[in-house]
Amino acid sequence: MRLAESYRPQYLKDVKGHDTALAKIKASLAQKKPVLLYGIPGIGKTTVAYAYAHEMGYEIIEVNASDTRNKENIQEIIGNAAKQHWKDHCCLCLCA
Fold first, then answer.
1. Any residues with CB less than 8 A from the CB of 73 and at least 6 apart, and which?
2. pTM for this structure?
3. pLDDT tens across 38-72, in order?
4. Which domains occur in the chain, in start order?
5. How far apart are CA 39 and CA 59, in angstroms?
6. What are the angstrom distances between the C-alpha of 35 and each of 1, 23, 27, 65, 67?
7. What CA–CA distance (Å, rounded) separates 24 from 36?
8. Is the CB of residue 53 less than 8 Å from the CB of residue 92?
9. Sign of CA dihedral 13, 1, 43, 82
10. Contact at 8 Å (CB) between 26 and 12?
């Protein structure tokens, strides 16, 4: 584990500097609307995704774009998880 990861906030209340964005994310996810996080490296996209998942007890499915470049692979990895859990959970997508 990298040093930065060991100090990563575990809960959204510990994420600082993104109050407006966090409020919008929480509101959308509470309504079971999917959320897409995007932006330049280092602004906290991964931290927010992991903190929310940890807080809600959700499982993280992490996919490296360089490993998954076709429709079949994406459907196999993400599609099966979505079919199993979509009714009970929301979707938080992170583009890095």
1. 67
2. 0.69
3. 888 888 888 898 898 888 887 777 766 666 667 77
4. 3-94 (3.40.50.300)
5. 23
6. 27, 12, 10, 18, 22
7. 11
8. yes
9. negative
10. yes
